[in-house]
Amino acid sequence: MEDRTWKKATLCVQGGYQAHNGGPRVLPIYQSTTYRYDSSEELAKLFDLESDGHMYTRISNPTVAAVEDKIAKLEGGVGAMMTSSGQAASLISVLNIASQGDNFLMMGNLYGGTTNLFLVTMRRMGIEARVISEDMSDEEILSRIDGRTRLMFGETIANPSLDIFDFDRFVPLSHKAGLPLVIDNTFATPILCNPIALGADIVVHSTTKYMDGHAMVVGGVIVDGGTFDWEKSGRYPELTEPDESYHGVVYTRQFGRAAYITKARTQLMRDLGSTPQPMAAFLLNIGLETLDLRIRKHSGNALKVAEYLNGRTDLISSVSYPGLPSSPEHAKTMKYLEGGLSSGVVSFSMKGGRESAMRFMDSLKMAAIVIHVADARTCVLNPASTTHRQLSDEMLREAGIDPGFVRLSVGIEDIDDIIADIKEALDRCL
Ligand code: PLP
Fold first, then answer.
1. Largest Cα–Cα distance in the chain?
2. Are 179 and 191 in contact (CB under 8 A)?
3. 218 C-alpha to center of ligand 1: Å?
4. Which atom of ligand 1 is least distant from the CA of 187?
5. N or C: which end of the chain has fewer CB within 10 A?
6. Which of 83, 84, 87 to mutate to test the pocket of ligand 1 (most atoms within 8 A of CB)?
7. Probe ligand 1: pick from 82, 84, 111, max atoms within 8 Å of CB?
8. What is the mean pLDDT of the chain?
9. How far is the CA of 116 from the centre of ligand 1 (A)?
10. d(CA 120, CA 126)
11. How far, in Å, is the centroid of ligand 1 from the Cα of 293?
């Protein structure tokens, strides 16, 4: 039986699903869109949100629910909702408390896909993302907040800059302004960092990355910390006043600390339908079982790779890895990430620019060139020759991207083989 004192490694393996006597040992895949009830009254109670249970898989499903429960426990939240992708999780985390005419604060170093979603697509929906950064003073940041500002959004380990979010500074700042803090914890995973314990209110993940860890399933999740006082803040009528689309339910009154995540599911998942498939949840669960093991190995390997790259001053102009003692992010890494472990992602710049980066990548034998990070296999990406290839070197520099910039996602193979592959490929660039 599940125990409240279980540590994270145990939750990864045992959390969420408990086999009943004689039941299947492994989480079953409930591949069913719908659920049978004996009486229409029972179903009516489900519709009225008066009892728990599943009615339609667009909204909830037992396989998905077990994995959501595991993730909520790993993050220390009151509830979680899986989504069909990380993008859907980010979108819903904002849409749940922001409507046309509202605005919110986003850190300027978010993942490019999130940045595009927030600055372009959401703007078209009439929701304005206002960019802030660590370089700005508190006064400058507070001056971006007005009566229609709804939240602050950041990433624990930013992709791809690998900046570490300054919780001690931004938690009090967002709460002072009466705003919940939403954190994308994808790269850190709940093993290395629990943003809710550090003061954040909502956590989102692209589970496509380390949580799955095998590059098999696209997915996302939103976790509600249950920490934010929506009533006291007075800015969130969608949670504190009757929802006319759900026959007048007042989420804070009926669901207390789980108001935010209940609304996300019963209103937005119902309407938007960015639902994860039961099979996707099943596969994600297999990944989660080894997450604690894997993220430690990724981080240990990445530190060794970063140290090796740091020594290759003949070809490399700079190495960025928050776990390196020489990194400007190191103090925050030690403060906020367990044991100073900071994931498997390392970035560096080749002195020879775009051409040199491409030669390095083409010379790798084991590590593969892919548009992905954070799975068991070591892989590389050079934005200048792939995701940003339409831009000239000058345009890239203006966008803050060095043409020779390589993002390396260090896998969990033997470190000697990873470094040998990198060394051989670098030597071909001499
Ligand atoms: N957040 C971060 C930090 C990411 O790296 C990504 C994808 O790379 C996303 C969100 C979007 O997730 P998905 O690709 O699962 O939609």
1. 75
2. no
3. 9
4. 3
5. N
6. 87
7. 111
8. 96
9. 12
10. 10
11. 22
Q: What's the pLDDT at 48?
A: 86
Tell me the C-alpha distance between 161 and 117, whole Å. 18
Of all helices (H) and strands (E), which one includes residue 149?
Answer: strand 149-155
Rounded distance, CA 82 to CA 173, Å?
A: 29
Using a 6 Å CB cutoff, which residues line ligand 1?
A: 85-87, 90, 111, 113-114, 155, 159, 184, 186, 206, 208, 218, 220
Domains identified in the chain and CATH numbers: 8-287 (3.40.640.10), 293-427 (3.90.1150.10)
Per-residue model confidence as pLDDT tens digits over 93-113: 999 999 999 999 999 999 989
Q: pLDDT confidence of 4, banded at 50, 70, 90? A: confident
Quote helix, strand, coil % in the chain, to nearest 5: 40, 15, 45
Facing residues of 314 across strands? none
Location of structure tokens 């803040």 = 233
Lowest mean pLDDT among 246-260, 324-338, 393-407: 393-407
Q: How far is CA 109 from CA 83, 112, 153, 156, 157, in A?
A: 23, 8, 10, 11, 10
Ligand 1 atom 14 nearest Cα: 86
The DSSP-derived string for 92-144 is: HHHHTT--TT-EEEEETTS-HHHHHIIIIIHHHTT-EEEEE-TTS-HHHHHHT
116-153 pLDDT tens trace: 999 999 999 999 999 999 999 999 999 999 999 999 99
